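Archive transcription. Copying these from loose printouts into the bound notebook so they stop getting lost. Printout 1 of 2:
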Amino acid sequence: MIASETTPLVLAKASKPKTPLPKLQLGILLTIQLAEGITSTSIFPYINQLISELGITGGDDAAVGYYAGIIESLFFVAQALTVLRWSRLSDRIGRRPVLVIGLSGACISILCFGLSTTFWSLVISRCMCGVLNGNVGVMKTMMGELTDSTNMAQAFALIPTVWSLGGFLGPLMGGTLARPQDHWPVIFTDPFWGNYPYFLPCAVAACLLFLAFCTMVLFLEETSPTKRRPKLTSATLDDSSGESLPRRPTADISLRSLLTPTVIIPIANYAMFAFLEISRRVLVPLFFSTPTYLGGLGFDPSSIGSWLALFGIMDGVFQALLFAKLVDWLGPKRLFSASVSSYALLMVVLSIMSWLVRARGGVDYAVTFALLCQLVLSVICSMGLGTLLMFITVSTPTKDALGAINGLAQTSSSIARAVGPAFASSLFAASKEYNLLGGNAVFVILFMLAGVLRWLGSQLPDEIRDRDE
């Protein structure tokens, strides 16, 4: 079968036996992803308080969001400038060396973050992490190389599951271990912990990254078609293909030749989804930490960490137990549409919570019920990630181009994630400071953008094609 831009991506109906997942190799990849997920989310519970303590806001609580958004956005700017190069480099030298560099960079940068005492040192440490870490795109490429059409949904369901587990453990760790002298003054008596009150969660995160590094070096096998060892030549890593395109190294394939509608549409959806999702992830802890007189919930870092951890638990359980079944039942396109619709409803719930807090003067049973609704909607929304990863993986015209396709996808999502935090946090701060639309302008605009993504998702193929055709 010769694929073209107009060929529908139709899922093969003939029953095929499922290929067993390579559990050890996938387990190592997921361990790396878990360590990086814990590290990236561990700063969320205390980043706003840290910025306040630096004194750069001049005591203006509403301005904290501006600086928090800048820090997170610059990380994704740095990643967007380098992630495609890392993905292309992994096609030349193999996946493992790039993962080694990425884990080392993440470990060093999080230690620097914990030792930062100025705003610009925070910025430099986050930019260092973004420049040196191209692991996200490489790991998704390896996941695609380790699976086939029969077990792809099962494997990709594990990616958001592990991110959710990281989203549970990271905020819980960050919120619990931040400012240890306040919680355990008898143990942490050294003045060091007073000078660097947020170093402990960063040090623990660095230890987790080091353990993941050791596991990868000892046990992870190469999956690159040009670099893998002979013992990995199996059905899941077979290079044979029915594609009519000429076989040549990915490094020699021009990026322009890959930009067909079949590739561009899933990547465009992925970028827009990444923008909305990172906006939500930045907005929720900011909303939690904002004082009640501004329409926030006024939570401390420990409470923020607990609520984000609860989301991580719920999200991980739902992804692990239901994602593959929902893909089989609804199909990936319908599931993606449902996740985007839940995002729009989530913005409505957040605006209602803001009104309730102001009307009732604090957090009561009604606000708590709205919080639980927000958690459920967030879980449904996050299921869109796995479906888009499936669409991107099967859009590649040849298996040798999978690294480049994932690099393009990650570059676009990094650009979106660079804009998202600054956009959401700044708009949130402006909404509260100038009382735009009753302080709810940020929720209204994100609601409208979810509608745009809902239309963009309608352009996706109705079903995914068999990768082995």
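Printout 2 of 2:
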Amino acid sequence: MDCVEQSNADAEAPSVIDRYFTRWYRADMKGNPCEDHCILQHSNRLCVVTLAETHPILQDERTVKSINYQISNGCSRLHNKVSGKSKRGAQFVTDFAPLCRITCSDDTEYTIYSCIRGRLLEVNENILKTPNLLLEKPSTEGYIAVILPKFEESKSVTENLLTREEFEAIVSKRSLSQPP
């Protein structure tokens, strides 16, 4: 009897993401329909930028052709060098700062934005070598970047973001308005 109870407890255990992170969403980024971003906020203020499940890259069985962290001629997110307790050298990003550009196999290009203000601690270089991580594990190994908001802004950083319930309401309205 104990074995059955134990296996039921294991089956219902939340994932690490669900257990330690709060999910926040930004829907229709910069007015682009369905280009939704997800921010995973840890209790230590760190925020992980990922693609929301509804993002077009994760829909329609697309494949990723390339990921480019070179934002402009003078700005590459790959050259972000962070050191020390105060995170010296980290690039400061605003809500609408582009983090990377993702090109799919059908030549559709999507710009991924930071969605929050803070210091860019790291970008995921693993998705450059293995772009399928972005499709297979978008919330874990396929994350885009890690951002640390300023301490004094850590509570207000989520004011412009949606909770999971608000985001699901927007997604359900979208599916009702789209013709079959």
